[in-house]
Batch of 2 targets.
Target 1
Amino acid sequence: QVQLVESGGGLVQAGGSLRLSCAASGRIFSAATVSWFRQALGKEREFVAGITWSGAWTRYSDSVKGRFTISRDNAKNTVSLQMNSLKPEDTAVYYCASVRGSVVRSQGGEYDYWGQGTQVTVSS
């Protein structure tokens, strides 16, 4: 079983930046995908960005592409999400998720492991 813990959320003004971190522990697959999802009040959880643990593939939702950057640190078993030019509509609980495989997946139902989430609030 893989355990995921998110950190780095907080309150920022529009145009500001935050860096989220997802720390993984337990039985980590050598070939896996780690992605960030978010869920705003009254809305379903949506895909934000993903990266393959072994490989160079990344994927972003259209709403964050160009503003957010996902990266990995294999030695530390962490995946980060650098969020720049934040907008009020980015306000949500952000979750880290993982699944075995070498292809970045955008559907939440395809992920087996989830963190508890970290709150990101962007004020106007």
Target 2
Amino acid sequence: QVQLVESGGGLVQPGESLRLSCVTSGFAFSSDSMSWYRQAPGKERELVAGISSDGGITTYADSVKGRFTISRDNVKNTVYLQMNSLEFEDTAVYLCNAVTGVGTGHVRPWFSSWGRGTQVTVSS
């Protein structure tokens, strides 16, 4: 059974930072590219960042470039998202998933079942 458990979200003010974690199990984490997506109410789910299996290739949405950093620990089977300089528009539920296509410009989720995600709310 694939498990994707996101944590680390919370309520912050604009300009502050959060670090999200996604602890995984049930698949060959170290062989798979991973990603963070986000979904806000009334909006489509969008790719935020992706990282190759060995961490050598990363990709980011234009809206978060320079502010967010994706990383992974293949011993802990965990992927992270460091979010700095948070803005109102970053408010969303953040979810992780394995992906295909990192480095190709066409990243797509691999597992059809998503975790519950973790809520990030940026408010003044």
